[in-house]
Amino acid sequence: MKLILASLLLALSGGVAIGETALGRSQGQTLYLPIYSHIWHGDMSADGQLAKTLLSVSVSIRNTDPQKGIRVTSAQYYDTDGKKLKEYLATPKTIGPMGTHELFVSRGDDTGGSGANFLISWKSDSPTSAPIVEGIHANLPVGRAIVFTTSARTLPND
């Protein structure tokens, strides 16, 4: 009985590992990354205004494949209203195995607003592990610190 149970558990765990590996490979995707060029906070003042804190944002695009490179073909920055503000890549950027490419939105640039976002597209010649894309938001004045992250999500293919 113990041998049958152990065999069953081994077989099930092997199937899960194969399923996870197959689902995590792609030849390209478009990723949506929410970011915040500023955050609103505090109580509303008598004149109806909220306090606004500006944030810098480091966008980290990490190739998780230990053997294959990927090409980031586009990194489009949009504001809260959905208006495209900037393409961050003049030409496609190759990220080698386990490499990282970073984009930066400075703290003084609040044109994106509290609902800003990036659309990041990548491709590869053969199926690879999907990259991890995160936004690291920071404002680090003396005496206090605001730091948080956001994570990209895969958009469906058309």
Description:
The protein has one domain (27-154): Hypothetical Protein Tm1070, Chain: A. The protein contains one helix and twelve strands; from the N terminus they run αββββββββββββ. It has one helix spanning 2-23, and strands at residues 25-34, 38-41, 51-54, 56-62, 70-78, 84-87, 93-95, 100-105, 117-129, 132-139, 146-151, 153-154. Strands 1, 5, 6, 7, 9 and 12 form a six-stranded antiparallel beta sheet that branches. The protein has a four-stranded antiparallel beta sheet with strand order 8-4-10-11, with no helix packed on it. The radius of gyration is 20 Å and the shape is elongated.
Write the layout of secondary structure elements.
Blueprint: H1 2-23, E1 25-34, E2 38-41, E3 51-54, E4 56-62, E5 70-78, E6 84-87, E7 93-95, E8 100-105, E9 117-129, E10 132-139, E11 146-151, E12 153-154
Antiparallel strand pairs: 1-9, 1-12, 2-3, 4-8, 4-10, 5-6, 5-7, 5-9, 10-11
What is this entry, summarized?
With 158 residues, the chain is mainly beta. The chain is built from 1 helix and 12 strands. The radius of gyration is 20 Å and the shape is elongated.
Give the name of the CATH architecture.
Answer: Sandwich
Kindly, what is the distance between the CA atoms of the first and last residues, rounded to a whole number of angstroms? 50 Å
Percent of residues in β-strands: over 45%
Count of runs of 4 or more consecutive helical residues: 1
Number of strands: 12
Biggest sheet features: 6 strands, antiparallel
Q: What is the average of the pLDDT values?
A: 86
Gyration radius, to the nearest Å?
20 Å
CATH third-level topology: Hypothetical Protein Tm1070, Chain: A
Low-confidence stretches: 1-23
Q: How many structural domains?
A: 1
Secondary structure: helix percent: 10-25%
Oligomer: single chain
* CATH class category: Mainly Beta
Structural class: mainly beta
| Secondary-structure element pattern, one letter each | HEEEEEEEEEEEE
